[in-house]
From TrEMBL:
<dbReference type="InterPro" id="IPR015855">
    <property type="entry name" value="ABC_transpr_MalK-like"/>
</dbReference>
<dbReference type="Pfam" id="PF08402">
    <property type="entry name" value="TOBE_2"/>
</dbReference>
<dbReference type="InterPro" id="IPR013611">
    <property type="entry name" value="Transp-assoc_OB_typ2"/>
</dbReference>
<dbReference type="InterPro" id="IPR008995">
    <property type="entry name" value="Mo/tungstate-bd_C_term_dom"/>
</dbReference>
<dbReference type="GO" id="GO:0055052">
    <property type="term" value="C:ATP-binding cassette (ABC) transporter complex, substrate-binding subunit-containing"/>
</dbReference>
<dbReference type="Pfam" id="PF00005">
    <property type="entry name" value="ABC_tran"/>
</dbReference>
<dbReference type="GO" id="GO:0016887">
    <property type="term" value="F:ATP hydrolysis activity"/>
</dbReference>
<dbReference type="GO" id="GO:0140359">
    <property type="term" value="F:ABC-type transporter activity"/>
</dbReference>
<dbReference type="GO" id="GO:0005524">
    <property type="term" value="F:ATP binding"/>
</dbReference>
<protein>
    <submittedName>
        <fullName>ABC transporter ATP-binding protein</fullName>
    </submittedName>
</protein>
<dbReference type="InterPro" id="IPR027417">
    <property type="entry name" value="P-loop_NTPase"/>
</dbReference>
<feature type="domain" description="ABC transporter">
    <location>
        <begin position="4"/>
        <end position="235"/>
    </location>
</feature>
<dbReference type="InterPro" id="IPR012340">
    <property type="entry name" value="NA-bd_OB-fold"/>
</dbReference>
<keyword id="KW-0547">Nucleotide-binding</keyword>
<dbReference type="InterPro" id="IPR047641">
    <property type="entry name" value="ABC_transpr_MalK/UgpC-like"/>
</dbReference>
<keyword id="KW-0813">Transport</keyword>
<dbReference type="GO" id="GO:0008643">
    <property type="term" value="P:carbohydrate transport"/>
</dbReference>
Length: 362
């Protein structure tokens, strides 16, 4: 059993099933990210683990102890919310120490823990300030510090960076990763709808949809081998290209869309091998090459450039292929403009093929 274990967890709000028979094991010292769109149940699951919601059925274990019906304060967790929820009349030091004072922790121990948290989060110069004198990023550091002083084994983060601007999010993302590396054997569960946060922070990602976990794996596996079409489309920016067609089985399997045929001889099918039928072919923009680089790829085709989006380091190009949108990246210095006809190429072995009915990866 891991640091946190969820067994057959169900949560209903009236007749609505919000969480559906969830099972999840989080190892000691692991950084697990719950990722999904709004309403998928990720924050609800976190609140169940924290004890802020009473579950309908199932069990929750923390460090091997059944905490299903224990109060949040008795679960050995520290929680950081989307809102900072700092006491405006108290200094930073007062906010950090408040919970420890209520728990009647000795004064010298409070001072030690506050000093340690301030050092780790680089907020020592802010200890005498009040929240109104802090920036958004500084306030969130204090909110993290308030959880950190509790000296717990499991930290729960509920979209802690969503109120910050892009630059601050990037900076605090690095700080949270450093924090996890510094606090060895400390388990962190982090909720977000931001896939960049998930990919950069997580040891493993649990992608949720409609109260169920779609895929639980490390970031590389989820990116390169998504278990179904939903996961493939959710991960990646810009999102994966989908092309509908047919899978034909001959001496080698072939994907056919209109007059175009793409050999899947090098594609690794799961299970007992492919069966003919309607499928969706998915290829990520990052895996499509252009012009000279395209000539080295197993499959090539010509496409017309419809829209370009310069992004500095690279340019996102929009085109069409067999009636479907095809997006790909080129170097930001590459001369490409609307109306150009260019050669693109890719390796079908890097693609994903999904059954049209079940939407599962073949």
């Amino acid at each position: 059993m891991g640091a946190v274990s969820v067994r057959n967890l169900c949560l209903n709000f009236g007749e609505v099933e919000v969480l559906k028979n969830l099972n999840l094991d989080i190892e000691e010292g692991e950084f697990l990210v719950l990722l999904g769109s709004s309403g998928c149940g990720k924050s609800t699951l976190l609140n169940c683990i924290a004890g802020l919601l009473d579950i309908t059925d199932g069990q929750i274990f923390i460090k091997g102890r059944n905490v299903t019906w224990e109060q949040p304060k008795d679960r050995g967790i520290g929680m950081v919310f989307q809102s900072y929820a700092l006491y405006p009349q108290m200094t930073v030091e007062g906010n950090l120490a408040f919970g420890l004072k209520n728990a009647r922790v000795p004064k010298d121990e409070i001072a030690r823990r506050v000093a340690r948290a301030a050092e780790i989060l680089h907020i020592e110069p802010l200890l005498k300030r009040k929240p109104a004198q802090l920036s958004g990023g500084q306030r969130q550091r204090v909110a993290i510090g308030r959880a950190l002083v509790r000296d717990v084994d499991v930290f729960l983060f509920d979209e802690p960076l969503s109120n910050l601007d892009a630059k601050l999010r990037a900076e605090l993302r690095v700080e949270i990763k450093r924090l996890h590396q510094q606090l060895e054997n400390t388990t962190m569960i982090y909720v977000t709808h931001d896939q960049i946060e998930a990919m950069t922070l997580a040891d493993r990602i649990a992608i949720m949809r409609s109260g169920a976990i779609q895929q639980l794996a490390d970031p590389a596996t989820i990116y390169n081998k998504p278990v179904n079409k939903y996961v493939a489309g959710f991960i990646g920016s810009p999102s994966i290209n989908f092309i509908d067609g047919q899978l034909e089985i001959g001496s080698d399997p072939v994907f056919r869309a209109g007059e175009t045929k793409i050999s899947l001889a090098r594609y690794q099918f799961s299970g007992n091998g492919p069966k003919p039928g309607a499928v969706t072919f998915g290829i990520r923009p990052e895996h499509i090459f252009i012009e000279k680089a395209a000539s080295d790829q197993p499959f090539q085709a010509e496409v017309d450039v419809e829209v370009i989006e310069p992004m500095g380091a690279d340019t996102l190009v929009w085109s069409r292929f067999n009636g479907s949108e095809l997006r790909f990246r080129v170097d930001g210095q590459h001369p490409v403009k609307k109306g150009d006809r260019v050669m693109v190429g890719f390796d079908p072995a890097r693609a994903s093929v999904f059954d049209a009915q079940t939407e599962m990866r073949l």
